[in-house]
Amino acid sequence: MIVKQEAGGKVTFATTADLKADTVTVGEKGEPGKDGKDGTIGVNGKDGSAVVINGKDGSIGLNGKDGANGLTLKGADGAQGVNGQDGKDGLPGQNGETRLVYETKDKDGNTKTNQVANLDDGLIFTGNNGELNRHKLNTLVTVKGEGVDKDQSAAFQSASGNINVKADGNGTLEVQLAKDVKVDSVTANTVNATTVTAGNTTVNTDGITIGGSNGAAPVSLTGSGLNNGGNRITNVAPGVADTDAVNVGQLKRLGGDMAAIGKKAYAGVAGAIAQSSIPQVTRPGVTGFGVGGGHYGGQSAVAIGMSSMSDGGNWIIKGNVSTNTNGTVGIGAGALYQW
Known about the structure:
Layout: E1 2-5, E2 11-14, E3 40-44, E4 49-54, E5 59-63, E6 69-74, E7 100-105, E8 111-116, E9 123-126, E10 132-135, H1 150-154, E11 163-167, E12 173-177, E13 195-198, E14 201-204, E15 207-210, E16 219-222, E17 225-227, H2 248-276, E18 287-296, E19 299-309, E20 315-324, E21 329-337
Antiparallel strand pairs: 1-2, 3-4, 4-5, 5-6, 7-8, 9-10, 11-12, 13-14, 14-15, 15-16, 16-17, 18-19, 19-20, 20-21
């Protein structure tokens, strides 16, 4: 007998042109012969049987090297599905299906039972919430990021070195985010952090500290107040309210006003000196006219005055007027009764 396997997997059994057999019957059926022996049809490989079709128990086996059983499929007794090597029913599959089961030998010669999966078995995925996603083999599984559409995904720029996927060897892939995340920018409505550092600026629970440049002392604003590190505070707007800070311009104007007031005050003092320097009459019944001058703090003044004493010498009256270099005029008058 010739067994021929074609390229498409078709196997053809045919007899040779010169048939050799124990008996050949042609014509009418003769007397029954002896019971035949159970035989096998084998396709032998180089190192042992590759395929064995056993006529005794109806099994088809794939034998390994040196005659070791590799894979045995059995359909004896009309059982549905395919049975194991020892004629046992295959293991049940999903939804009560009968599994295709094959047995192999391990390196120690022990029998190992294996199930053949099908497309409906698929894969099962889960996440932190514990919900299960079941997918058949050769079906689409979508993994996507939140809040990114198709157009945004095309222009998406990622920051490398921040995400790691770690396998634990037990079927779990853990997605890890780096403790120190490196990105170009962050946009957030609220940032909760113990310390934030940007260049030489540090913001923490104590306040904010800005490192000085070119050896200058740092500037800090904390609960204890402002420490400007000996640096000038610049670009201060003029104060308006009573509790506002004033700038140097306002202080200069105030200084100018104080200087002007000082000049006026000094001129007034000079006028007082000039008026008080005018002598008064000393004899009863006479009237006198006098002149006086004064100088104080760079300011000068002149004064004129008149005084008179009654005939009895009991009354003395006087009056004077002065002018100073600041352009102001001073007037004074007085009376005295003596006894």
